[in-house]
Amino acid sequence: MVFEFPSWDALNRNDNEENRVFNTDETTDKLYQDVAQPLVVSAVNGYNGTIFAYGQTSSGKTFTMMGNQKSLGVIPLAIQDIFKIIDDSPNREFLLRVSYMEIYNETVTDLLCDSRKKKPLEIREDINNLVDLAGSERASQTGAAGLRLKEGCNINRSLFVIGQVIKKLSDGHAGGFINYRDSKLTRILQNSLGGNAKTVIICTITPAAIEETLSTLQFASTAKHMKNDPHVNEVLDDEALMKRYRNEIVDLKKRLEEVSTFWYTVDSTHLHIG
Ligand SMILES: Nc1ncnc2c1ncn2[C@@H]1O[C@H](COP(=O)(O)OP(=O)(O)OP(=O)(O)O)[C@@H](O)[C@H]1O
Ligand SMILES: [Mg+2]
């Protein structure tokens, strides 16, 4: 079988200037500068942002997202930039929260938590998502049976559903029912897929398995048609901030009053706590 791929230039010249193909000579640093850094900057300016890596096993998802000492990945580069932006903006206040988790067998685990205290996480909404999809495309090729197959099905439930969701969104079904709730990953990424977020999908391929490469490219070309609707979340101007602080002061005063009433009651009955 012969597959003919368009040249890198032709792919890059594509219909949509937001598409970009990186060949083997280009570094993760270059990829970061071209497609990821703009998202990090806009996240600091109030947009939700998601960057996720999708592709067959050993194609370089972890290499791209985490990297190594010699070649930093998208995650450390993004963190460096976020701290630089914070340092360079002494007049702004930032609240930075980081979570790092794994979805395995449809169970979400906190990877920053002490392993003895690990317990499955409940899903909450969050703003910035940097995702490395372990083993995307893998299950169909493993030929696994029994327990491993069941495990494989569950691991791939998230990947299967993300494929479905992206397909529906790119078919123009945006007004219809989208099954975000069918997997943990799509619930977490709901805003990033067809919603209020700027999303970059990095698809990694390797010539090791041509069928998986084709299926990743199909995923990529479908995902290209997905339309998101990103808008700035809340930019607080000085007046809005003052209003928030005034409300907070009223609330704190009320709570202070409640506490002193309690102490008065305790004191008047000669009960002391301490
Ligand atoms: N662009 C690259 N340049 C040099 N080495 C790379 C590159 N991409 C991947 N590699 C190397 O290839 C191997 C497999 O890559 P990686 O572990 O990132 O794959 P993966 O897509 O995360 O696989 P899995 O689905 O199994 O997690 C690693 O040893 C990695 O260092
Ligand atoms: Mg990996």
TrEMBL record:
Subcellular location as annotated: Cytoplasm, Cytoskeleton
GO molecular function, one term: microtubule binding
Gene Ontology CC: one annotated term: microtubule
Coiled-coil regions listed in the entry: 235-262
Main location as per UniProt: cytoplasm
SUPFAM superfamilies: P-loop containing nucleoside triphosphate hydrolases
Binding site for ATP: 55-62
Record-annotated Kinesin motor domain positions: 1-226
Gene Ontology BP terms: microtubule-based movement; mitotic cell cycle
Key words, A-Z: ATP-binding, Coiled coil, Cytoplasm, Cytoskeleton, Motor protein, Nucleotide-binding
Homology family: Belongs to the TRAFAC class myosin-kinesin ATPase superfamily. Kinesin family.
Protein name per Swiss-Prot or TrEMBL: Centromere-associated protein E
